[in-house]
Amino acid sequence: SRPPSQPKPVHIGSVRRDSGSLVSDNPVVQALLSFAQADQAFPPQAASIAGVQLEMRPRRDIEKALEEFKGAFTVEKAQLMSGANSSERVDEDVNADIHIPLLLKAIERGAAAFGPNALIGQNSAKAFLASCAPKITSNDDVLSEFINQKLKGDDDLQVRLGAQ
Asked: Residues annotated as region Disordered (predicted)?
């Protein structure tokens, strides 16, 4: 049982070895494993026993972070051409919510999904999403250490996981 202060996992998956690679029954955990072992194989002792699990727990309040992201990427007004005069622009209320397509793009492209001027408060959108990356834990210390070392050195992966 987990301490009350520890948030519930957002993703949890069983991890096992299959033909030299690590695989999971959870698609998000599987994507993380694939990304982590793309350029370097997991150590042979990782997931060498039965019953290995990998958990992803939020570091921040997910609802609050989503509201912040949504607030930064909702278009409330747009300057459109006037019907009477095509050279004149008028403000129109549009209230267009674009945060879901942006999150999907961040999952797909990582840090490259945002330009340098994409800000949420004082932070870049990239830094904001990276701060939302979940904490990765496992009952296998070797697996946990390997994944967290990969995550620490990869801003792109942190942005993708934070958007997830």
From this structure: 1-22
* Confidence band, pLDDT 50/70/90 cuts, at residue 99: confident
- Quote the pLDDT of residue 3: 54
Measured distance CA(69)–CA(73) in Å, rounded:
6
Given the structure tokens 């509201």, which residue do they identify?
67
From the number of C-beta atoms within 10 Å of its C-beta (0-12, 13-18, 19+), residue 23 rates as middle
CB 48 within 8 A of CB 134: no
Query: Burial, 108: exposed, middle or buried (Cβ in 10 Å; 0-12, 13-18, 19+)?
Result: exposed
Report the helix count and the strand count for the chain, using DSSP H and E.
6, 8
| CA–CA distance, 54 with 153 (Å, rounded to integer) | 19
Strands (E) in the chain, as ranges, are 11-18, 21-24, 52-57, 74-81, 89-97, 119-120, 123-124, 135-138
Structural domain boundaries in the chain: 63-127
Which residues, other chains included, contact 31 with Cβ-Cβ below 8 Å and sequence gap of 6+? Answer: none
What is the value of pTM for the model shown? 0.76
